[in-house]
Known about the structure:
By secondary structure, this protein is mainly beta. Helix content is 0%, strand content 48%. The strands form two sheets. Strands 2, 4, 5, 6, 9, 10 and 11 form a seven-stranded mixed sheet that branches. The protein has a four-stranded antiparallel sheet with strand order 1-3-8-7, with no helix packed on it. The chain is globular. The mean pLDDT is 95.
Amino acid sequence: QVQLVESGGGLVQPGGSLRLSCAASGRTLSSYGMGWFRQAPGKEREFVATISTAGSNTEYADSVKGRFTISRDNAKNTVYLQMNSLKPDDTAVYYCAANRWSRSRIRDAYDYWGQGTQVTVSS
């Protein structure tokens, strides 16, 4: 089992920045592809970003490309999502997820999920 805990969410103004963290326990994350997803009320959970086991490959949703950066520090068993130039449409609960096999854009590929952290972008 892998336990994931997100932190770093909050209320920011449009154009602001946040850095989300995902801390893992139960297993080391070095062999897991990792992803970030988000879900707004009444909407489906959507892909945001994913990163390969060693951190050498990343992919992003078109809606966040150029603004968000996913990274990982396997020594700290932690994954990050740096979010810049935030927009009101970025408002959602953000979830960290771990994939036993590889990085993926597909939510069903992930085996473990955190509890989520709320990000609200509003003036």
